[in-house]
Amino acid sequence: METRKTWFTWKRQYRRLMSFIADFVKESIRHRNQGRCLHFVDNTRCDQIINAHSIQKQGQLRLIAEDGHVLRFNADFSTLTKSSGRPAPKKIGINRVSTFLGFCETHDGLRFERIDRGPLTPNHEEVALYGYRSLCRSYFAKENAVTLMDSMSRNRHITADKADLLRIMKSGHELGFEQLKRHKADYDQSLASDNFFDFSYVAFLSNSPMHLQLSGVLYPEFDFLAERLQDLSNPQENRGLIAFFTAPTKTGWAFCFAWHQSSSEICVPFIRSLATIMYEKYELADALIKFVFSNCENHAFRISWWNKLSSEVKQEISDRILHMALPTATIAPNYLTSGIRGMAEWTFDVVHSRSDI
């Protein structure tokens, strides 16, 4: 009798969990599909919201697509159930990669025409625009995360332990979003007045084959020398923010870091640490690919590139993606240089810098 009672209790809890997960997925989609224009000019034209690409479809995604598809690490419900709860690479058409409903047709065209119509030069204006689009995509996602945590905390299927986890996650998202508001205001002010020299950048230029495209922003906690740059647990501290992205150039492609002058106190030593490990013969390609898969969920990569990687490299990349996805995971100070070497076959020929490093 006790066994039968235990089985029914487990079945009831399982159904409750599945109902909560189903509601979570449904609510996530609903929030993601609520478009709004994030351009700093607010007027009545902002009514034709479009699926804007945070990674260029023509200039970037097509370069790595095979039969119109790329791979991206995914953590949706169907993927997690097939991969024992771990994010896994998922084949996706380039029309759906990196899109977000964050701009109207008018402002997306006007603001980003300069970088969408041709390769990166690079210069202050173009790098600022790439960085702004990376920021806006993160702003859109973080705002959605805050409202999602709030709505799910009132879900009728939620358990006490899930409620506690949602409170922790909501607190973290709210803190991150408040910081993003400040950074977006800095970007908006500089871009509205065409003060592009408020932005600094470092661009690593390459002619080697490119298999990965990406766009994101980060509050760097540790640098490449495992030194702490800022305390992300302190809600009173203004966090420094760095944007990063890949971009096509006339002769190949570039991996860029960019930041607004308001974040120079954090970003300059971060870039200096990268220069230091390069001087000490640590491969730049290794440092960059570890940085990407530890900090950037907005990415896409070539199918054949992934397929030819060794099982050890695939496992390390997967572990880094999983660690990034865990809301309560702690970061090892040396995470940017630890692990397998030789993960990327990129070579960089030129460093293009406009900063005070």
DSSP helical segment count: 10
Q: What is the chains' assembly state?
A: single chain
| Main sheet: strands, sense, barrel | 6 strands, antiparallel
Shape: globular
The number of domains is 1
Radius of gyration: 21 Å
- Structural class based on helices, strands and sheet pairing: alpha+beta
Work out the helicity level: 40-55%
The ordered H/E elements are HEHEHEEHHHEEEEHHEHHE
Q: What can you see in these coordinates?
A:
By secondary structure, the chain is of the alpha+beta class. It has one domain. Helix content is 47%, strand content 17%. It is built from ten helices and ten strands. Helix 1 runs antiparallel to helix 5, helix 4 packs across helix 5 and helix 5 packs antiparallel against helix 6. The longest helix has 33 residues.
List keywords for this structure.
alpha+beta; 6-stranded antiparallel β-sheet; 357 residues; 10 helices
Set out the fold topology.
Elements: H1 2-32, E1 49-53, H2 57-64, E2 69-74, H3 77-82, E3 88-93, E4 99-104, H4 105-116, H5 124-152, H6 160-192, E5 199-206, E6 212-218, E7 242-248, E8 253-260, H7 264-279, H8 284-295, E9 299-301, H9 303-308, H10 311-325, E10 350-354
Antiparallel strand pairs: 1-4, 2-3, 5-8, 5-10, 6-7, 6-9, 7-8
